[in-house]
Amino acid sequence: MDNKKNLKKKMDLTPIEDLITEDFGAVGTPERDQFEMECDAFIIGEQLKDERIRAGLTQEQLADKIGTKKSFISRVERGHADIQLSTLVRLFQGLGRHVSVRVL
Q: Cα separation of 91 and 65, whole Å?
């Protein structure tokens, strides 16, 4: 453990948590909460895009399959849509996948 600390010190590295706190505030602040929600939306969007591509579907094909518009699929994939859990489930069901929620 001391070797890792010494190596970080020699390389003058800053932990990512410190950088995030510097840019977006401490955990629990409104700015940090907003940042974390945007990160979660981005991650979900990337997962949706990966699964859609794996299924061999275009955004338009997925939209048709679940009864929505291509622009909505695009917004979700870019992390620009605040969606309900039921919508998330419907999106992934359209790809033959299941959603599991875990509270930490």
A: 9
